[in-house]
Specification:
This protein is α+β, with helices and mostly antiparallel strands and 503 residues long. It has eleven helices and 22 strands. It has an eight-stranded antiparallel beta sheet, with helices on both faces. It has an eight-stranded antiparallel β-barrel with strand order 15-16-17-18-19-20-21-22. A two-stranded antiparallel sheet has the order 3-4. The chain is globular, with a radius of gyration of 26 Å. It starts with 9 loop residues before the first helix and ends in a 20-residue tail after the last strand. This is Beta-lactamase family protein.
């Protein structure tokens, strides 16, 4: 983690509170709690409404029903919430499908350990299922072509014993599309991935989750069963200001798709991991891989929703702004990374702008509370009202002459490029004309090489070409040759150069 971020101004905090208060009132949410983070650390949080009454034992909640003291019923059966139970940053809510991000990290840890390949068909590790031809990468990105839900009954409102085995959850005919054809969100696919984790770890999914993620990160308020203080889930009547308590069953084999309870405090810490502010449980390279678009929903033209590896993506055009009136460059867009979640009685959202501000929002209502839009609006408001200060420029460490020789103007054929060296040791290749392929490169495994990080040259290797005396003459990147003068020296240009030269 970096040093503490700049505190938010009072006017900024008031704007955020107004947005949360308006959502809670307009959506008639029993309670709503939200937080904003920068550099992986909370800079603001607030709660509205009533979430819980006096605490009670977690075991009483599994199976549903209202918590004693969470409210009282009048003669007509109406639930009312008392003064107790105002939500705070450590009040637990059920986070539904945000659970999938934890399952995905467990799978990627196995990949990084060499226990599996993302290209492996599921059958290689969990043989005998009806979806064994889908690859692990396809399951993570909802490209497996698998049914969205279990066979009846609706798994979110019944005890996990209704689908006691993985085969019962998958069902006899789960295939909806050929694997890889299109993005089709699947809760069942993440139940399968949870079983994959359990088999390769030799323990339950829940045990692996606690040992590998929750305990090392100190996420003590993220649990499989609710722990006081926690919110009671409600359905809000569509035409009257009355509440119906919702059940909160253990999801059984479907737990890896939506079991967890958490708080905005814990989810800010978790979003710091997913956003690349910490490599405590997964390498920064793998976290970046998770955030890359692997699938998009493009049925209606330009994509707005997509998926990485276990993460959801939202693409919003710049220049439209939100409640804050933020404006960006016309024709550009921002891809937000995170996940939404819902279970009966709860909705949740956790989103971040790449490399920047993040927001979390939790509510104990089955539907109607736009927590996803709320989090994006909070991010937009903070970044518009109080933009982060740029990191101070400082000179980088000393570099040798050979590295400095790589910088400056190079030509790919007649097209000019600039190579610059950053203080962190990365090179930036930037076209100087109207078109070209920009890329960042970091030092490679062999001396005098760099590896592309993004753009067209991602994963490709840049090597230095020298003449017999050792003088640097050209750069070679994915067979593209860059020289100090257009098409010179001729002996380094593939195919040679017309002997008459420039005319």
């Amino acid at each position: 983690m970096s040093s503490a971020p700049e505190p938010l101004l009072a006017a900024t905090q008031r704007q955020l509170l107004h947005r949360v208060a308006s959502e809670q009132a307009d959506a008639r949410a029993p309670s709503l709690v939200a937080a904003v983070a920068r550099d992986g650390q909370t800079v603001w949080s607030a709660g509205r409404g009533r979430a819980v009454g006096p605490a009670r034992a977690p075991a009483d909640d599994i199976g549903g029903g209202a918590a004693p003291g969470a409210g009282t019923a009048d003669g007509g059966g109406r639930v009312t919430l008392g003064e107790a139970g105002r939500p705070g940053p450590d009040t637990q809510y059920r986070i539904g499908s945000i659970t999938k991000t934890f399952t995905a990290v467990l799978v990627l840890r196995l990949r990084d350990e060499g226990r599996l390949s993302l290209a492996d068909p599921l059958d290689r590790h969990v043989p005998g299922t009806a979806v064994g031809d889908s690859t692990i990468a396809q399951l993570l990105a909802h490209l497996g072509g698998i049914t969205a839900e279990t066979p009846p009954p609706w798994w979110e409102r019944v005890a996990g014993s209704e689908h006691a085995t993985l085969d019962e959850a998958v069902g006899p005919d789960p295939r909806r599309f050929r694997p890889g054809r299109r993005h089709h969100y699947s809760n069942v696919g993440f139940a399968v991935l949870g079983e994959l984790v359990a088999r390769l770890r030799g323990m339950s999914w829940a045990q692996a989750l606690d040992r590998e993620l929750l305990a090392p990160l100190g996420l003590t308020r993220t649990t499989g069963a609710p722990m006081a203080p926690h919110a009671q889930g409600y359905a809000v009547h569509p035409h009257a200001d009355v509440l119906l308590p919702e059940p909160a069953h253990d999801a059984g084999v479907m737990a890896p798709a939506g079991q967890l309870w958490s708080t905005v405090t814990d989810l800010v810490r978790w979003m710091a991991v997913l956003g690349g502010h910490s490599d405590a449980v997964l390498s920064l390279d793998t976290l970046a891989e998770m955030r890359e678009p692997a699938a998009v929903e493009a049925d209606s033209g330009e994509w707005q929703l997509g998926a990485g590896l276990g993460l959801q993506l939202i693409r919003r055009p710049n220049g439209l702004g939100g409640p804050s009136g933020q404006r960006g460059l016309a024709g550009t867009s921002t891809v937000f990374v995170g996940h939404g979640g819902s279970m009966p009685g709860f909705v949740a959202a956790a989103w971040s702008r790449p490399g920047g501000t993040a927001a979390v929002a939790l509510s104990n209502a089955t539907s109607g509370v736009a927590v996803g839009e709320l989090t994006l609006d909070l991010i937009d408001s903070v970044d518009a009202l109080q933009p982060s200060l740029p990191t101070e420029w400082l000179p980088g460490p000393l570099v040798d002459g050979d590295t400095l020789d790589v910088t400056g103007v190079w030509y790919w054929g007649p097209a000019p490029y600039i190579v610059t060296l950053r203080g962190d040791g990365t090179l930036v290749l930037t076209p100087q004309g109207r078109y070209g392929r920009a890329s960042r490169l970091r030092p490679g495994p062999a001396a005098g090489t760099w590896t592309g990080l993004d753009g067209y040259f991602a994963g490709e290797t840049l090597v230095l070409g020298r003449d017999a005396s050792g003088r640097l003459t050209n750069l070679e990147l994915a067979s593209f040759v860059f020289t100090r003068r257009p098409y010179a020296p001729a002996d380094r240009i593939p195919g040679g150069v017309d002997p008459h030269g420039w005319q």
